[in-house]
Design brief:
mainly alpha, Growth Hormone, Chain: A, about 0% strand
Amino acid sequence: MYKQEPSLLQVAHAFESIIDEVIFIIGPAFTIGASVALFPEAGPIVAMLFLLFGTFMLTSRVDTEPIVDIQKNVRRFIIKSSSLRIVVLVLTAVGSIFGAIDVAVIAYASKSGSGILASIMLSLYAAGACVAGVCLGALPLRGSAAQRLLAGVIFMFILAIPLMFASNSTLLAVMLFFAGLPNALTISTSMLLVGQAIPSARLTEAMTWASTGITIGVALGAGVGGMAIDIAGDRAAFAVALASGVIAIVVTVGGYRTLSRTGA
């Protein structure tokens, strides 16, 4: 919608990240509350109903569909785009950070004997990204998209380091809020780079690759983080998140020139 207006496009991506984080904040509390107040299956049922409603609302907005542009001599597989491959790999590593932090917080809360504590802490993690998303949409852009992506993954790594050393639940909750701050910058800039690298006619496919990268990363981070917890305790999953952060930085640095040619 705003491909020719970079400033508005960044605002749109920031707004999308805010909505994502609001859902992450409200969703767990709402579904857990439904399961507790009604019956155990109520939470998943409510989530499925919201999914059906959201899908209907999205598919009914035909006015926002991109114009079909049949082009000759285009790549059969859009993933052959070097810029897209780099972004997908970065998002896979970022998703792994999310997955590892999720299981680490759940394990910490379980050890503390409070199931609701995990929801509160993860909501604060999402709240940090939400606040950053508001600032990202309101403030003028500085630097190239490649520079912003590199800054995002570096700060995700740096702000995840203190999580390993939190001495109590309150301190961990505060650290999680700050650790969530770079998330909106990283995700929205990644999607911006995808939009700049891929023709409009193939953008839906490219965005699907990007979101799939995040999903695979979350699964990997949660799986590896869970195994690390079984071996060495809940803090080991935070180490998995840090390792994923290093991978995200390495991939971004390695593909920096390519991303610089892609993004403005």
